[in-house]
Amino acid sequence: MEREAFYRTMIEFVNGLTDESGGEKVAPDDNLFDNGYLSSLSVVQVMTFLEELSGGILDPALYDLESFSTLERLYGVLEDLRTPAEAVA
């Protein structure tokens, strides 16, 4: 998935988590926690969604909460999931 398409997809997903509508524009470097889009509990839903998008399995031990704080960082996690495990290790 291309970066811009990912951003659009994640904005729609995050808006669904917060019952927001209208697809408010979130900048790639906006902090999703500080701006009220995500909570530490909703990260589990984000992790599951990233697994669905990538077809991979996310190992939570490899990431801290900050890894899920912006669209840019979420895209990095998605890229990690799409990279074969041998290449990451």
TrEMBL record:
Top-rank lineage group of the source organism: Bacteria
Coiled coil (UniProt feature): none
Species the sequence originates in: Actinomadura adrarensis
Protein name, entry field: Carrier domain-containing protein
Residues annotated as domain Carrier: 1-82
InterPro entries assigned: ACP-like_sf (IPR036736), PP-bd_ACP (IPR009081)
